[in-house]
Design brief:
By secondary structure, this protein is of the alpha/beta class. It has a single domain, classed as Sugar-phosphate isomerase, RpiB/LacA/LacB (Ribose 5-phosphate Isomerase B, Chain: A, 3-Layer(aba) Sandwich), CATH 3.40.1400. It is built from 7 helices and 5 strands; from the N terminus they run αβαβαβαβαβαα. The protein has helices spanning about 5-10, 25-40, 60-70, 85-90, 105-115, 130-140, 145-160; strands at about 15-20, 40-45, 75-80, 100, 120. Strands 2-1-3-5-4 form a 5-stranded parallel β-sheet, with helices on both faces. The longest helix has 14 residues, at about 145-160.
């Protein structure tokens, strides 16, 4: 049974989406940003804003992840060549739960059960149509808020904040 807090989480409308990519994900980022604008989302682009072959994904993914963690944007999309670097970098920011997604089940289940708040793609791996489909699925999904999911997320939060770790 959901409590009032989880009900509020599950019905919160998503309007603000952040997006970031390096050169390996630049083309896909630009495509997704356009589709998000067309769909009525407020899109914040954390860069790169120009295609530069020598840029580095942490320079764009980390500011995006910080915005997701701070609540400046509701959800984030990070793109690099494979999506792996973006996912690794994003998950270094406390409060971010990023996943490398390339199929629909994980795009919604990650949100519903694990409160995924950032999705990562490989710009050289996932095609435009699939990335847009996964983005829509990710943004439409809501965290279920069941006690077992909250309990698990609390354990992850303890890892992110060593002062909160309880000793047995």
């Amino acid at each position: 049974m959901m409590n009032d807090q989880s009900e509020a989480i599950s019905t919160k409308p998503l309007k603000r989406v952040g997006i970031a990519a390096d050169h390996g994900g630049f083309e896909l980022k630009e495509f997704l940003a356009g589709k998000l604008h067309e769909a009525g989302f407020e899109v914040t682009d954390f860069g790169d804003r120009l295609l530069k072959s020598d840029d580095d994904y942490p320079d764009f993914i980390i500011p995006l992840a910080r915005a997701v963690a701070a609540g400046t944007v509701d959800r984030g999309l990070g793109v690099c060549g494979s999506g792996i670097g973006a996912s690794i970098a994003a998950n270094k920011v406390a409060g971010v739960r990023a996943g490398l997604i390339d199929e629909n089940f994980s795009a919604h289940q990650g949100v519903e059960d694990d409160d995924l708040n950032m999705i990562c793609f490989g710009g050289l791996v996932v095609g435009h149509a699939l990335a847009w489909e996964l983005t829509q699925t990710f943004l439409a999904a809501r965290f279920k808020g069941a006690e077992r999911f909250r309990r698990r997320l609390e354990k992850v939060a303890q890892i992110e904040s060593p002062t909160l770790i309880k000793t047995p």
